[in-house]
Design brief:
Elements (H helix, E strand, L loop, with lengths): L4 E7 L5 H12 L4 E4 L7 E8 L6 H5 L3 E9 L1 E3 L8 E4 L6 H7 L5 E5 L8 E2 L2 E2 H6 L9 E14 L5 E8 L5 H11 L4 E11 L2 E2 L6 H6 L5 E2 L1 H4 L4 E4 L2 H8 L4 E2 L13 E4 L5 E8 L2 E7 L7
Parallel strand pairs: 3-12, 15-17
Antiparallel strand pairs: 1-3, 1-14, 2-3, 4-11, 4-12, 5-6, 7-10, 8-9, 10-11, 12-13, 16-19, 17-18, 18-19
């Protein structure tokens, strides 16, 4: 019997996000598995994995804010902007923590970032990391992202100093690009030494489980779909409305109690407390984006 829900995984270093998905498929013996918010192989931390029908909810998790603890190594640049690449420049940087803190405000708020060549962004129908593996580099359009916070937590002095920073940012932010750009603003170069994702939305490391823990007790680690959508505004409906939701009916916005409080999307919950659908506002109406409730069950 298929399992439907979301798992908060503590991704280990050396695993791609696809490796984690493949492992979860084996553990739960089902093929319908996906993830939200790709982490690079060297990065660790929170990775959300969806099972069964909950894979259709992953896009709502993907778009939430994220938090990271990152180590920036100054004076050394690499081909990938992180520690996995080849060193292309090395120059001592006589900086201190105060120097870093002085330039950080320039990277707060809405900023533009150039997607790195090792990213999954598509240009001309080809993913950049595929082109990069062949030694190709193409022009990329900058993207707007939002950085809410950069705090310098620790600093290691030396000719090639390193800083540990806490970053809170929007989805789509490249922390490796942020590290390289901070190095450039200080008149030198830098790369991302280590990266650990602390949270995606309200899903934090406190509830993340290692792959070993998940394999030891698979059922215990799955959050039901309604819990997976906990960061959305929740709308509770009665049995009659639930039957209409199962058929994908569009409602006037006023029909959903509380739907006027914000732009959505809305987690629509039935009388039994189960997630039936996710609705989005369309002008004066709310329309289904994802319907989980089977018609026969209503």
């Amino acid at each position: 019997m298929a399992t439907h829900g979301v798992i908060v995984v503590d991704k280990p270093a050396g695993w791609t996000s696809h490796d984690v998905v493949a492992k979860i498929r084996k553990i739960y013996r089902q093929r319908r598995v996906g993830h939200a918010g790709t982490l690079d192989p060297d990065a660790t931390g929170v990775l959300l994995v969806g099972l069964g029908r909950a894979t259709r909810l992953l896009r709502f998790l993907q778009d939430t804010g994220k938090g990271y603890r990152a180590t920036i190594v100054f004076g050394v640049s690499t081909t990938t902007l992180d520690a996995s690449g080849e060193v292309v420049d090395r120059r001592p940087m006589p900086i201190d923590q105060a120097d870093i803190e002085a330039v950080v405000p320039a990277f707060l708020g809405e900023i533009e970032q150039l997607p790195p060549m090792v990213s999954a962004v598509k240009v001309g129908g080809r993913r950049l990391h595929e082109l990069a593996r062949r030694g190709e580099e193409v022009e990329r359009a900058p993207r707007r992202v939002h950085v809410d916070r950069i705090d310098v937590e620790a600093f290691e002095p030396g000719p090639y100093p390193a800083a540990t920073v806490l970053v809170e940012c929007s989805s789509g932010t490249y922390v490796r690009s942020l590290a390289a750009d901070i190095g450039g603003r200080l008149g030198g170069v830098a790369h991302l030494g280590e990266l650990r994702r602390l949270h995606i939305g309200s899903f934090t490391l406190d509830e993340a489980r290692t792959l070993a823990d998940i394999e030891a007790d698979p059922d215990k680690t799955v959050l039901p779909p309604v819990a997976a959508m906990r960061d959305l505004e929740q709308v509770s409906i009665d049995a009659e409305q639930a039957r209409a939701v199962a058929h994908g009916v569009t409602f006037p916005a006023a029909v959903f109690a509380g739907a006027n409080a914000g732009p959505g999307p809305f987690a629509v919950v039935g009388p039994d407390g189960e997630l039936l659908a996710v609705y989005e506002r369309r002008r004066a109406a709310v329309k289904p984006a994802v319907v989980l409730a089977p018609v026969e069950a209503t």
